[in-house]
Amino acid sequence: MTHDVLHALAGFAAGPVTTTGAVRLVTSLSALDWLSVGMAGRDEPVARILRQQVLDEGGTGDARLFGNGSAPARSAALVNGATSHALDYDDTHFAHIGHPSVAVFPAALAIGELRDLPLVEMLEAALIGMEVSIRVGLWLGRDHYQVGFHQTATAGTFGAAVAAGRLIGLQSDDMETLMGLSATRASGLKAQFGTMGKPYNAGMAASSGVECALLVQRGMDSNPAAFDGTFGFGATHHGATQAKDALDGLGERWLFESVSHKFHACCHGLHAALEAAREIDIAGPEVAEIAVRTHPRWMSVCNQPEPETGLGAKFSYRTVLAMRALGFDTARLDSYSAETCADMRLRSLRDHITVTADDSLTETQAVVSMLKRDGSRVEARHDLLAPLGLAQREERVRTKAAKLIGGQAADEAWSLLRQGGQSADFAALMVAP
Amino acid sequence: MTHDVLHALAGFAAGPVTTTGAVRLVTSLSALDWLSVGMAGRDEPVARILRQQVLDEGGTGDARLFGNGSAPARSAALVNGATSHALDYDDTHFAHIGHPSVAVFPAALAIGELRDLPLVEMLEAALIGMEVSIRVGLWLGRDHYQVGFHQTATAGTFGAAVAAGRLIGLQSDDMETLMGLSATRASGLKAQFGTMGKPYNAGMAASSGVECALLVQRGMDSNPAAFDGTFGFGATHHGATQAKDALDGLGERWLFESVSHKFHACCHGLHAALEAAREIDIAGPEVAEIAVRTHPRWMSVCNQPEPETGLGAKFSYRTVLAMRALGFDTARLDSYSAETCADMRLRSLRDHITVTADDSLTETQAVVSMLKRDGSRVEARHDLLAPLGLAQREERVRTKAAKLIGGQAADEAWSLLRQGGQSADFAALMVAP
Questions:
Q1: HSE-CB of B372 using CA atoms within 13 angstroms
Q2: What is the SS3 assignment for B237?
Q3: What pLDDT is recorded for position A112?
Q4: What is the dihedral angle through the alpha carbons of B37, B43, B49, B50, rounded to the nearest 10 degrees?
Q5: Measured between alpha carbons, how far is B80 from B85 in angstroms, rounded to an integer?
Q6: Residues A83/A41, Cβ–Cβ less than 8 Å
Q7: Which of A137, A196, B332, B412 could make an S-S bridge to A155, C-beta 3.0–4.6 Å?
């Protein structure tokens, strides 16, 4: 047992790093996206429940909460992690299949506020934490996910912990202790999907990371081998523990840079088709028929033919494509409603849309094919893994943010993220105007 | 998947129960024992670190902390769970190998204080929670423990949760939701043994149980199958998931009644030998030689031949037996010291004690054999699993408590436990005089 992964990740998390303009831009975009989806989710039931719990507990107002109020850093991380994941509209990294932002930003920002640190330091620590969460996720591997663990929560705890630990100044040895302590605190099951337990998992990761970091700072010890030893987290949690995957290019290449932002407020399975539909004009009067081809697994997930509710619409290829053709904004939460489903134009158009499974496609791919009245056919294909140019990513994330929190708040947040300020200035945007 | 275990345990935890005088007495003894070892551990480093963390966070003083101060219930449970396990002097249940008291009492007492409940209700809820933790532990089985999970923490979370849930009035359906939510929060690795992470595990269990119970009370939902479904806690955590073991006699027979209290402030591996030595007089001048036979696994754990420190003495057959012969009180923490190890009489006596492995013994058995100067031999054997009469248990637990917190405090606590009062009256004893 050489503890290569432990040493490398702890050293990386505690030491100097080399970033690029591109990865700093993507980090800022994820911070803006996280702020936007958190604000949009602030009145969801899970957000209200957790916020009220910690507000009733009182205590030092070290860190703001989405919506209103403030709380000790541990508690703020719990509330903000769950709140930002409540709508499932936050970013995703497909390498390990996890949501890096919702576990790590709440932890980093809470410590950034607690210690009144510059926003640029918070962003760098968050970037490092998210990178560590992705690499721990790769180290745990696909078995860990398939057997039932929620990488957002499990790998996310380590990312949250090292981001918090870096901001409180832990050095490499303490960072190893921190990863060992986090190994006993980390948890989270996919069996919570479809319930408030899913966003709670993200909050747990953020809060556990903050808790462990603050305790190590106070002198708590732990066994670093609890991370990767014979009886450690990897071994006990069905980790494939592939050191090679976890460490490949560490410090030189930022896996986080390929994080994927969501641009439609609906099931991820619909996104590739909606992106493909952006490339052809499906709105014209000359459209006779639209055919969608998608990976077979999505047929049971998000192919409701004639939903009547907003929630149903979020799981319906035919509905979201008809929405797009009719000019409903699929990025907006309020576009998905019973009224939309009842729209006569939409119901009529929906009847011209067919959906079929195509096992030559991957889960991130879809094809939209349009038959015109003149008999000609236009086809577009999209893969969510295809990299989006930086300028386009910026434009789309900022547009999404403006829709969720208003153009002025989005611009103010972006200006802070790019031009600097204190962590607390950014956190002040978490309270609704 | 029938969810038998989930339904049965949730129904048991929420419904009326039939207790006996014996199990109520044992519960009170464990409460007294928990109070004593928590008070004795209040200045241990892990206790100080956690207490200072939550005191610095401030907030409502809903529940007292061992040593001083108070905190919100979630935080008090964290501190008090870790503090009471800091010395490893609390009770053990051998059926699943876990420490029921340190996970469950901190949760039940925090809610008892928060809601100003009678002590008798707190004790009943704690009994039920401890029973659930043992039965969940049996359901998870030996593989779960062997692979590296700490039952005190994992099974303990469920026990803490249902004890807290019962005290806030959750009904059977909500209790199932609570077990589902606890399934995503529960964690804890044995790899922490030997570090502050071990007592932290107990605190985590208590705190996670309180957190989940309060959230369910506020309307948080969860998937109950996260406990025992295909992707649930048992399946993901190497649980053997033996419904039969978990449910055998549930509601009729209290497994908790056979909990084992520690009467010597040293490694558990030494206890059977010390108990055997109680049965013969190893102090007399006629003793020529003392031979200890023990299970082979203890030879590498607690057979330090000539330790020089108090900690070393706690892991030394020869030292603790010589201590007993010379009248040092092995129940007292301060008996184990460098001074004791340096005692010339002890060093001399130690040379007449031999320790050998005997694989015909179980891990809970030991034989002490004494050769007298006249050539005769006296032998005593003890098994920690042998039931101790109730009167003797009471006498010994109360004597231990008096040694740890003083006779007056021990009597006052016992009187409250047996004659009634509020949870807060009992908690008031957690602050040192």
A1: 13
A2: coil
A3: 98
A4: 30
A5: 8
A6: yes
A7: A137
* Cβ <8 Å between B59 and A50: no
Residues B286, B284: Cα–Cα separation, whole Å: 5
For chain A, the structural domain boundaries read: 4-260+406-430, 268-383
- Topology match between the domains B4-260+390-430 and B268-383: no
Structure tokens at A236: 């006990």
Query: Is the pLDDT confidence value at A195 over 80?
Result: yes
Distance (Å) of CA A153 to CA A161, A189, B184: 12, 8, 9
Tally of CB atoms within 10 A around B228: 28
Contact B58 A56 (CB under 8 A): no
Third-level CATH fold of B4-260+390-430: 2-methylcitrate dehydratase PrpD (1.10.4100)
Whether B197 sits inside 8 A of A215 (CB atoms) is no
Which amino acid would we find at residue A431?
Answer: V
Nearest Cβ partner of B225 from A50, A58, A191?
Answer: A191
Each residue's pLDDT tens digit, B125-164 = 999 999 999 999 999 999 999 999 999 999 999 999 999 9
- Which amino acid, residue A430? M
Superfamily for the A4-260+406-430 domain: 2-methylcitrate dehydratase PrpD (1.10.4100.10)
**Integer CA distances (angstroms), A270 to A359, A364, B288, in order:** 16, 9, 84
* B11-30 burial: b if 16+ Cβ within 10 Å, else e: bbbbeeeeeeeebbbbbbbb
B170-175, Cβ contacts within 8 angstroms, sequence gap of 24 or more: B170/B14, B170/B213, B170/B216, B170/B217, B171/B14, B172/B10, B172/B11, B172/B14, B172/B15, B174/B14, B174/B216, B174/B217, B175/B10, B175/B11, B175/B13, B175/B14
Its ipTM equals 0.95
Instruction: Name the residue with tokens 């990976």.
Output: A295
Contact B299, B357 (CB under 8 A): yes
State the fold for domain A268-383: 60s Ribosomal Protein L30; Chain: A; (3.30.1330)
* pLDDT digits 0-9 by tens, B375-429: 999 999 999 988 889 999 999 999 999 999 999 999 999 999 999 999 999 999 9
Nearest chain A alpha carbon to B79: A215
Residues of A in contact with B69 (CB under 8 A): none
CA distance B426 to chain A (A): 22
**Is the predicted pLDDT of residue A237 greater than 90, yes or no?**
yes
Q: Is the pTM of this model over 0.90?
A: yes
Q: Do A226 and B192 touch (CB under 8 A)?
A: yes
Confidence check: pLDDT of B245 > 90: no
pLDDT digits (tens, 9 = 90+) for A364-402: 999 999 999 999 999 999 999 888 899 999 999 999 999
Contact B67, B83 (CB under 8 A): yes
Q: Rounded to whole angstroms, how far apart are CA atoms B210 and B77?
A: 7
CA of A58, closest CA in chain B: separation in Å?
4
User: Which of B192, B201, B226 comes nearest A191 by C-beta?
Assistant: B226
* pLDDT, mean of residues B234-258: 93
